[in-house]
Amino acid sequence: MLRDAPPLSRKQVAWFGYVAAPPAGGELVMIGRTRDSLYRNVLKPMMDRTLFGELAKQVRYTNGASTAIIMGREVHIIGANDALAEPKVRGLTCAGAYVDEATTLPQEFFDQLVARCSVPGAKIFATTNPGAPGHWFRKQYLLRPDATRLKSWHFTLDDNPALDPEYVAALKATYTGLWYRRFILGEWCLAEGVVWDSWDENKHVVDILPAMQRWMAVGVDYGTSNPFAALLLGQGIDNRLYVASEYRHDSRAAQRQLTDAQYSTGVQDWLGSYKHASGLGVSPEWIFVDPSAASFITQLWSDGVGSVARAKNDVLDGIRSVGVALGSGIVSVHRSCEGLITEVPGYAWDDKASERGEDKPLKVDDHSCDALRYALHSTAHDWRHLIRADLTEAA
Fold first, then answer.
1. How is 306-334 classified by DSSP, letter by letter?
2. pTM (predicted TM-score)
3. Which residue of 167, 282, 290, 351 sits 20 to 30 Å from the alpha carbon of 56, by its own alpha carbon?
4. Of the CATH numbers 1.10.555.10, 3.40.50.300, 3.30.70.1130, 3.10.129.10, which one belongs to the domain with range 8-159?
5. Which tens digit of pLDDT belongs to each residue from 362-381?
6. What would the pLDDT profile of 116-128 be if each residue is shown by its tens digit?
7. CA 240/CA 329 separation, integer angstroms
8. CATH class entry, domain 201-394
9. SS3 state of residue 236
């Protein structure tokens, strides 16, 4: 039996009850995109006594471990973030499984899991947020309930009684377009049109920046034949985010490619000469670089540039982080960032990929957009709380 996005307490209480008396002769497993995400989304709440009272004492787990003890029984903890994860369940004989965010897992993995739940009476409990209508999970499982022996429930955000009303209001105010339909209304809908449909140049572009209380990050999208783009992100004294400046080199337009060393020098000179309300030059807390640009990252390290890290490159999660920032109005872009301002209105979903059930943006004129995604998504833990505070003040 698969459960489609029930409220937090209901889905986990059902799993508690199942683990307490599972069918004999098989293993119990809990699966997420990664062990970290499974811990954050499921296991950590299950150990919260404010949510589950005395039941919380029945869960013993250390983040990152391969097993947990739930209701006195051993439960295997598995991350399944790519096709190579499928062998992890190939040899198991399962009596029951809990799957967090099923649509984020590879189909090969999920199909193998279903095949391994061969113990009579075995059940799979799965949760998911909706994706594209052509997604394999919807086509192969949700739309074939008789063949797959599936039961599913559809819930909207308002159906979750465990959520604070203020938090619900904040989510509704920050999600727009595609993400609102999927994460608030629970609809399976196509990713079509522009990626960030809340973008409004009249609203998001500013000519004057406030003084900054911190320079949070630089996001860098590396390119040789394609444009190289870097964006400087700051937090103003008004507790809002600002894309303050852009460094960009388009080798085709300039008819000159730069080396890693030249890009390193260019970025350092750009940051060192940037004029702002507090003076000249900035030292960002982090420089997040396109993780595929290994040679450039090494060059920055060799040049003594500090706080360089590989950017978080989960494309859809990153797109959503930027969408939340734009939709809430927490981020503004200085008019000097011409590359970014030019790219955002044309940053669009790939229609052909959407028809296949995949959410992918077109890889055309997206270099400053990628830099924005690296900067905002890699620092999301530093600024998401500002949205709720800002909405509370506005109310």
1. -SEEEPP--HHHHHHHHHHHHHHT-EEEE
2. 0.80
3. 167
4. 3.40.50.300
5. 999 999 999 999 999 999 99
6. 999 999 999 999 9
7. 9
8. alpha beta
9. strand
